Amino acid sequence: MKKIVRQQNYLKGLIESQDNKSITKQILRCAIRAVLEPLLDNPEAGVVLYRIINQTGLAGLIKRVEFSDIEAYNFSDESENLRERVWADTEFLCVMTHRFVSIFIWDNKTDSKNYVRYYSIWNSKLQDEALDIINRNSIIDIRQFQEKFRPDRRDNILLNSSIRRLVENMDEAAKDAVLGFAEFQAKPAEASAEVREVAHEIKNQLSICDLYGEIIRKYCEKNGITDETILNGVHCISRAVKMSGNSLLALKSTQSKELKQCDLKNIIKIVEDLTKVYFECKNVEYIVESKANLKVLADEDSLTAVLVNLVKNAVEAFGTTEDLNDENGKYVKIKAEKRGEFAAIRIINNAGKINEPERIFEKGFTTKRGGSGLGLSICKKSIEEQLGQLKLEHTGDDYTEFLIKLGLVDGVRG
Fold it and tell me: What residue numbers bound the domain in which 42 lies?
């Protein structure tokens, strides 16, 4: 009878061989993002091998990997890529391209649940040590990637030492920040309590608007008033009040976004109805292109609020009514389409170039007179909380374009 020899967890041996200091899981997440995000933002030929069991704070990033065109293989215990489940609490991330190879391995079994021990190699010819271990327990033959994506330079010991020192210094800084936050938490939370109280009062006033909107609607119904402008106006007011109320509720409770399957075409139609008012008495054409039936993973009210904000900004970029006297060719366009595994929503205008575009998402930075500088930073944060991406795709004298990318829901890609 043939003797079966089970594999051992040799990845833990690599971790012990480097003898690095333990780091917090927050710093681990920072390191994972630092490795993956540059490749996702600027895709090139490469492969990602990963085993990330605890995806807290990383779920959106992993989704981006899965939805991207980059070749990727998951080595979780539930995947079909493992020979044996011998790695237990050990996880890893390997990113390999023609110019860059990074291997990060960590083990969760430490004295504290908030810390991990780790091993890292960057652009090193020692990469085969870890990759050979992974390959022995892999259904997929990853030797092809070892040959294809190999650094063409000598092992840079100083670079690797520097990066590990950076990780450890970041960890120390994070611990200081946590202590500072703990001290802050120990103080009376007067400011946050005041915010909740103000949010509560504003919500009360919004409820009055909602009630009067309902009174107007019933009055129209009772008296046979069928003017579409009036009825649509009342509907838009009710919709805006509902969205504002939900935003205030989230502020009071600090609840996270509720992500679910949403009909993008329907959301674009709602946004179109809500934002038509911004074009009144302005010589600006409003173009909406949304023909594909796309289903996205999003929070409907939050996505609607972001799009309303972007359209409003696009109109206001043309200036006041007096500035628009008899000028032709001005436009604002919303365009929704499928791009690979994502839905792409573009908000475009030809109002000229944005000054200091690199600062456009900075909190407090504004290009508008009297602006707060909060709108775009809030929009960007909201889209990222919906596992998407918002960026300024182009700005010039010809046109300016903001791009939102959201993941499509499997099985319903139009």
Answer: 10-185
